[in-house]
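Pipeline run #58 for the internal structure catalog. This entry was flagged by the ingest filter as a single-chain record with no existing model, so it goes straight to prediction. Upstream metadata was stripped on purpose; only the residue string is passed forward. Reviewer on rotation: M.T. Logging verbosity set to normal.
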Amino acid sequence: MKTTALLTTTLGDYPKRSGKVRDIYDLQEHLLIVATDRISAYDVVMPNGIPDKGRVLTQISVFWFRKLAEICPHHLVSAAMKDLPEAIRQEDELDGRFMLCRKAEVVPIECIVRGYLAGSGWREYKEQGTVCGIELPEGLKKSSPLPEPVFTPSTKAEQGEHDENISFEKGCEIVGEETMSQLRDLSIALYSAARDYASERGILLADTKFEFGRDDNGQVILIDECLTPDSSRFWPADQYKPGRNQPSFDKQFVRDYLDKIKFDRTPPAPPLPPEIVQKTREKYIDAYAKLTGEDFPWA
């Protein structure tokens, strides 16, 4: 059992900022986005990580960026060690877990697309019959497929704060109607293409989150991560059954454990037990193998 998780990185004197999972370095012309093995749930970072999780996130993102490039251009320049600056090219810890990316002005909207009724969407539906204010048919069950994918944007919260679901109209007030319409159309097109591909691989894509930015020419491009187990709900199709929680390839397994021990969703989080760490690692690697059709190189 692999037990060593990479929780942080330090690369020379490059300016660095860190999110819940990624360390981002400014290389002047490009950004270097390094996915560590940190894992968060309910917006709280766990004290121990999941070995190789950062590699899974990176390699799945690279796969999707390239596969979906005809629908939307992206920020990925390279994921090859040879393209790193010479000063950090020998850093073995980076192998498989970095993306060299174009810089972009971030559009401050989280672009969520839902194809099934789960998570906060299910909770709202039970109370109001809606998801983010969008009317849905009566009689849907937990994990039911929606008649068609729905775009449910949220604010892009500052670190330590929670994202807030917003209406399409509120999004228009933030970034303008033309941009919101473009984000909606791109998000649904990306989700639909990924859903159809994943279904061929025995995976149901229940929902996902996209982030976008504008490049130097003002063009909207796909940024951050793409259709990973951290940003999506992936369900095994052969075990799917509406009306209940679904087995998953994502970090829902960690959320379920935290719910079981009645974690109050405020820091500090408790350490994850070894068996939860190992099972979560297996789920992430299984997602990689099923989606890409390849064995995980670092297994």
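catalog note: The radius of gyration is 19 Å.
catalog note: DSSP finds six helices and 16 strands in the chain.
status: ready for reviewer M.T.
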